[in-house]
């Protein structure tokens, strides 16, 4: 009887230790909290992101007129930070991407706001069709940061 109890206790201990190791905080993946974009004109960039992407402004703790925070839903937040000096040349490979239900409808919105866009190759008013069937376009925010919009589900 002692041997069965001892064997059961050892097995329980091994299983418990494995379960605890799997629940260790060190094995939990990080979650995106926010993306910060440095901008030269906070008011202009706030209007741009709010009107182009219909983002909702959320409270920010600084109240220093140098920050605008937007909710990105479960993905986290977008923080605009005033202070960029001069013009920058950003590479298209480094971009923010937003998904929309319809790229074609989104293009109509960009055209109505006189915002130029292009496909990945740089063809003006072009729409890239990826091999997986996703449509995508690229354009720049007021400071030249590249933005992608696609219809990925």
Describe this structure in words.
The structure is a single chain. The chain is of the alpha/beta class and 153 residues long. The protein has a domain at 89-153: 2,3-Dihydroxybiphenyl 1,2-Dioxygenase, domain 1 (Roll). The protein has helices spanning 2-22, 42-53, 103-112, and strands at 34-39, 56-58, 67-71, 77-82, 95-99, 128-129, 135-140, 146-150. The protein has a four-stranded mixed beta sheet, covered by helices on one side. Strands 5-8-7-6 form a four-stranded mixed beta sheet, with no helix packed on it. A hairpin with a 5-residue loop joins strand 7 (135-140) and strand 8 (146-150). The longest helix has 21 residues, at 2-22. Mean pLDDT is 89; it is low at 1-16. Residues 31-152 form the VOC domain. This is Lactoylglutathione lyase.
Can you summarize this structure?
With 153 residues, the protein is an alpha/beta fold. The protein has three helices and eight strands, in the order αβαββββαβββ. The strands form two sheets. A four-stranded mixed sheet has the order 1-4-3-2, with helices on one face. It has a four-stranded mixed sheet with strand order 5-8-7-6, with no helix packed on it.
């Amino acid at each position: 009887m002692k041997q069965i109890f001892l064997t059961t206790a050892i097995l329980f201990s091994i299983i418990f230790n494995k379960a605890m190791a799997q629940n260790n905080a060190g094995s939990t993946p990080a979650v995106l909290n926010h993306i910060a974009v440095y901008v030269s004109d906070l008011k202009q960039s706030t209007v741009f992101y709010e009107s182009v992407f219909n983002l909702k402004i959320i409270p920010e703790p600084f109240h220093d007129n140098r920050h605008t925070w937007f909710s990105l839903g479960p993905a986290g937040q977008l923080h605009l930070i005033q202070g960029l000096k001069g013009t920058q040349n950003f590479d298209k490979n480094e971009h923010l991407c937003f998904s929309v239900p319809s790229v074609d409808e989104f293009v109509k919105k960009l055209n109505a706001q006189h915002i130029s866009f292009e496909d990945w190759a740089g063809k003006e008013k072009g729409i890239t069709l990826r091999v997986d069937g996703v449509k995508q376009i690229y354009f720049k925010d007021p400071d030249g940061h590249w933005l992608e919009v696609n219809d990925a589900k």
